[in-house]
Amino acid sequence: MTLPASWTHTPPCPSEHYRQRALERQAVLTKPPGSLGRLEEVAVSLAAQQGTDQPAVDQVHIGVFAGDHGVCAEGISAFPQQVTAQMITNFTHGGAAISVMASHLDATLEVVNLGTVTPVPDLHGVNNLQIAPGTANLAVEPAMTKHQVCEALRAGDNVADQAANAGAQLFIGGDMGIGNTTSAAALACALLAASPAELAGPGTGLDAHGVSHKADVIGRALVRHGDNREPLTVLASLGGLEIAALTGAILGCAARGIPVLVDGFIVSVAALVAVRQQPVVREWLHFSHRSGEPGHRRVLDALEAHPLLDLGMRLGEGSGAAIALPLLRSACALHNGMASFADAGVSNKEA
């Protein structure tokens, strides 16, 4: 299977014309310059990304990607793998955090199962692809074949295409997969030449001994993998089906001019892979929150990202991004609705 075009074709850049217009508007609104802080930056970026004087994020598409990980055979998770399939059912029944938030925010929620160990029945709202029954054990062999990683990338790109066809103004990607913090940490270590001890974290709730063992497993995987940092090779060797799909969705959204609100550690690693493949993708990303996973800080630094929130969250599913979405909506409302000094008859600062 061939790679989606977004993997090889450079995405467009946001509009510099509308960025400048947004900056000019911010300069004449009835407030001291910069007094709305990061909200001003968000509004200006969205105006440039959407090519409009009236940025908005009312139409939001949330794609949650699920998959299992063969590295669980190494005992790196506090939860059994059948939880992945069980949570897919929970998403569709409205009981998961992201399900609650999608309903609360009036956002479209789509769930894609890339491959679980436990079979998932046909469920309304789930695209049950089952590329493979989870990945192979990355500690001893490549996690995915090239064919599998290409299928997963294409699945993510298809979700981006659906979001574009539905008129989405913003995309949020989420993850579900027992063992995926190990895969994400391994990916980040390989791409950043970082130490497993620095990036390995508690994931589903490991104690200090469990985190140390997890770092050892990642170290074995890195020795097996070697020094190759080519994004597709690293993704196939150390990634997960859902992480690859998230990478494809992020690349696909940038290619179609859809801003992306990045969630926590897992999605940020997928964003790192996407940016390493297509650097201009970085201009389409907003970062929602700083995860409680210790490796997230290093990944954010590599992406020169400054998240809007720091709440100690590490749930995944896209939940942190959903929590941050009202901030983006507030930024747009203020940018679009505030009066200028001239309109309000308010004196501006003296020159």
Automatic annotation (TrEMBL):
Gene3D superfamilies assigned = 1.10.1610.10, 3.40.50.10210
Q: Which pathway does UniProt place it in? A: Nucleoside biosynthesis; alpha-ribazole biosynthesis; alpha-ribazole from 5,6-dimethylbenzimidazole: step 1/2
Biological processes per GO annotation: cobalamin biosynthetic process
Highest taxon of the lineage: Bacteria
What EC numbers are recorded for this enzyme? 2.4.2.21
Pfam families xref list:
DBI_PRT (PF02277)
Q: What does this protein do?
A: Catalyzes the synthesis of alpha-ribazole-5'-phosphate from nicotinate mononucleotide (NAMN) and 5,6-dimethylbenzimidazole (DMB).
Q: Tell me what this protein is called.
A: Nicotinate-nucleotide--dimethylbenzimidazole phosphoribosyltransferase
Q: Which organism is it from?
A: Marinobacter mobilis
Write the gene name: cobT
